[in-house]
Design goal:
- The complex is a heterodimer of chains A (566) and B (113).
- Chain A is an alpha+beta fold and 566 residues long.
- Chain A contains 21 helices and 16 strands.
- Chain A folds into two domains: 95 residues, Alpha-Beta Complex (Penicillin-binding protein 2a (Domain 2)); 357 residues, Beta-lactamase (3-Layer(aba) Sandwich), CATH 3.40.710.
- In chain A, the strands form five sheets. In chain A, strands 1, 2, 3, 4 and 7 form a five-stranded mixed β-sheet that branches.
- In chain A, strand 14 and strand 15 form a beta hairpin.
- In chain A, helix 14 crosses helix 16.
- The longest helix of chain A has 35 residues.
- Chain B has 113 residues and is mainly alpha-helical.
- Chain B has two domains: 79 residues; 34 residues, no CATH class.
- In chain B, 73% of the residues lie in helices and 0% in strands.
- Chain B has four helices and no strands.
- The longest helix of chain B is centred in the first third of the chain and has 56 residues.
- Chain B is rod-shaped.
- The chains are: A alpha+beta (566), B mainly alpha (113).
Chain lengths: 566, 113
């Protein structure tokens, strides 16, 4: 008020011309202020007209930023993916006629009967769960029923369409979608960031491997089994199965025995399959040539133990023949001469002293003797006194019967051959080993005749060992295994089969040894998967192939002449 | 000193009056565009959902053990036998037997092989 009265006094005191000038200048100021206001309003209006304001976006359904990445097989088939599902629940207070609602819901929710649904929706609560994960299609069906008081909440869940095929490889996730087992756990960070993961697994091969091992387990009333198919050059695991297995979609409810991965975590004394490595180190170290004769007749005593053969020999055999007929005595005598240092050196190089590098949390650490005495040297030569996982063995065989370069197993698809620069065995040694392993399958005295498949030149080695129980061995519980490569002249894949505690059957004349149990199933697997893997049958009698598999076997050839069948 | 003449004031007023509805109309258009955008985004999200679900369903339906069962039931095919596979350059030897050019015999040999 004070200012106002002062202003009026100021003007009224002024001469007329002066007063007009002041008034005009004030008017100008007012005009500019008004103009500024209009400009501001105009700009704001214009801004509103072109602005895609953020409040509108709040109502759009958001597309999840980082959905967990898919797991694909080597051909791009989905093994694990994240799908939207609906949690279905009822608010009993909103339901008008529970009887009718239950009857209607029962037509869609087929895994519950009408009575169960009725009980749930009449509970004194505001939240009655009806289904934990409903597919969008089923949820739409529920909505179409038009029952009041039924609600759904959208959420994401992990789904494994090939639930049983490779459960142990995949593992599983918990309710928060975090990997808790298998590759889901090992590669959790990558998958959680939304990146897809392509495995080395081929689902088609995987299905065949699983089916064959499973039927052999049934046939021999065994308690379990395992199988591995590995690329001999890249180390990629093409298929890997451990039985019994489980449905990866319901991992939370699975018994421990089913969860246990026999192929990567199970530690076994794999028996005579170790003779392959024993022979390879004998040749590579230069301690033996394949034609050197070994005493397999006289008694072999180490301390209080006597090392025996399953089939006692009447004449001495050479190094190659020792492997072919699978003589424990012969292998032990070879190892005895090689000595602990060389044996340890090669076993270490082949990876038998530590866990494998496989991308799984479920890995077994080998059990090796703390004291490496003469008895240990001898028993290890035929696979006793050392417990390793099947993956250890397949990878070691990939090295020993492949190019001789160190092969490390992997579950991730490799775009190019691995950079390997550790040469464990020379190509000459591995070629001889393959020729011997081929005879194990093709020679009548070999232990794996039942693994022979016309044209694919299967080369392998059987192993039967008694399971450890308490302080000793259980004579009735065997682990039978067979490890093979094919084709012998140019090996592409390693195939490992193992059947746990098979029981002798009428059709096997009560035998439950590897030659009767683990070898035939490998043959069947190779026959089915070889064409899919692009390995074509060849004629073994072609001169260059005969040449590549040539061996000098004086004793066996003498017998072969007696056996007209060879 | 800015002094607006009467004429200028009238013209500016008219322009302002004309701009009013224009701003209003573009506001409305913006609203409808935004609704359209929301609808499209919702439908994208829905389509993505169904792609994910369909992919999972496809993987489920085309799982090898199921295909094997179906083929055993509906097709007369069995796993390949090594005898049924030959390298492409050996195909020649079978379709054209060197001993005879008789087509019927060639067919016969083809079948036996």
């Amino acid at each position: 008020m004070k200012i106002w009265s002062r202003l009026i006094r100021l003007i009224s005191d002024m001469p007329a011309a002066e007063a007009r000038r002041v008034a005009a200048s004030r008017l100008g100021v007012v005009r500019i202020v008004a103009l500024c206001c209009f400009c501001a309003i105009g700009l704001r209006v214009g801004w509103l007209a072109i602005d895609f304001s953020s409040e509108a976006k709040a109502f759009t359904p958001t597309i999840e930023q980082s959905v967990r990445g898919d797991i694909l097989d080597r051909n791009g088939q989905v093994m694990a993916t994240t799908v939207p599902v609906f949690e279905l629940y009822a608010d009993p207070q909103e339901i008008l006629d529970p009887r009718e609602a239950a009857a209607k819901l029962a037509t869609v929710l087929t895994d519950m009967n009408e009575e169960t649904i009725y009980k749930r929706i009449t509970r004194d609560t505001r939240y009655a769960e009806l289904a934990w994960r409903l597919s969008p299609k089923k949820y739409a069906d529920v909505l179409r029923l038009g029952v009041a008081g039924i609600h759904g909440r959208r959420k994401l869940t992990r789904a494994y369409p090939n639930a049983m095929a490779a459960a142990h490889v995949l593992g599983g996730v918990n309710k928060d979608g975090q990997g808790i087992a298998g590759i889901e756990h090992h590669q959790n960070t990558l998958l959680a960031s939304g990146t897809d993961l392509t495995l080395s697994i081929d689902l088609n091969i995987q299905a065949i491997l699983r089916e064959e091992i499973s039927s052999q387990i049934d046939l021999f009333e065994a308690i379990g089994g395992a199988g591995i198919i590995q690329d001999i050059e890249t180390g990629e695991i093409i298929a890997m199965v451990s039985l019994p297995d489980y449905d990866a979609n319901h991992m939370g409810y699975i018994a421990d025995d089913h969860r246990f991965n026999r192929a990567t975590k199970g530690l076994y004394e794999l028996g005579s399959t170790f003779k392959v490595m024993n022979t390879a180190m004998a040749l590579e170290s230069g301690v033996f040539a394949e034609t050197d004769m070994i005493d397999v007749v006289s008694t072999l005593r180490v301390g209080h133990h006597i090392i025996n053969d399953y089939h006692p020999e009447k004449t001495n055999l050479n190094v190659a023949e020792v492997l072919i007929v699978s003589s424990n005595k012969g292998s032990a005598r070879i190892a005895d001469k090689i000595g602990a240092d060389i044996q340890k050196h090669y076993l270490k190089e082949l990876g038998f002293f530590e866990k494998t590098a496989l991308q799984l949390p479920e890995l077994g650490a080998p059990l090796i003797p703390s004291r490496w005495g003469r008895a240990e040297i001898m028993t290890i030569s035929y696979g006793h006194g050392i417990s390793v996982t099947p993956v250890h063995l397949t990878s070691a065989i990939a090295t020993t019967a492949g190019s001789g370069m160190l092969i490390t197993p992997t579950l991730i698809k490799q775009s190019q051959p691995a950079e390997i620069n550790v040469q464990v065995f020379s190509p000459q040694t591995t070629a001889k080993i393959r020729a011997m392993m081929r005879r194990v399958v093709s020679h009548p005295r070999g232990t794996a005749n039942k693994a022979d498949v016309n044209g694919y030149l299967v080369a392998g080695k059987t192993g039967t060992s008694e399971k450890i129980s308490g302080n000793g061995y259980d004579k009735k519980a065997n682990i039978t295994s067979f490890v093979s490569v094919f084709p012998a002249n140019d090996p592409k894949y390693v195939v490992f089969t193992m059947i746990d505690e098979p029981k002798g059957q009428k059709h096997s004349f009560n035998f439950a040894t590897a030659g009767w149990v683990a070898a035939p199933v490998a043959g069947r697997i190779i026959q089915r998967v070889a064409p899919m893997l692009g390995v074509h049958p060849i004629d073994e009698n072609m001169p260059e192939i005969r040449q590549s598999l040539m061996l000098n076997l004086p004793e066996l050839e003498k017998e072969g002449a007696k056996h007209a069948s060879f | 000193m800015i002094v607006f003449s009467l004429r200028a004031t009238i013209i500016l007023t008219l322009i302002t009056i004309m701009l009013g509805p224009l701003v209003y109309l573009s506001g409305i258009r913006k609203d409808s565009r935004e609704t359209e955008l929301m609808r499209i985004e919702a439908s994208i999200a829905e389509t993505r959902d169904s792609i994910i679900v369909l992919k999972a369903e496809w993987a489920y339906l085309s799982r090898p053990d199921r295909i094997l069962q179906l083929s055993e039931r509906f097709l007369e095919v069995e796993p390949l036998d090594p005898h049924q596979i030959i390298p492409i350059d050996e195909l020649n030897k079978i379709t054209k037997p060197q001993t005879n050019n008789n087509i019927e015999e060639a067919n016969l040999i083809w079948r036996i092989e």
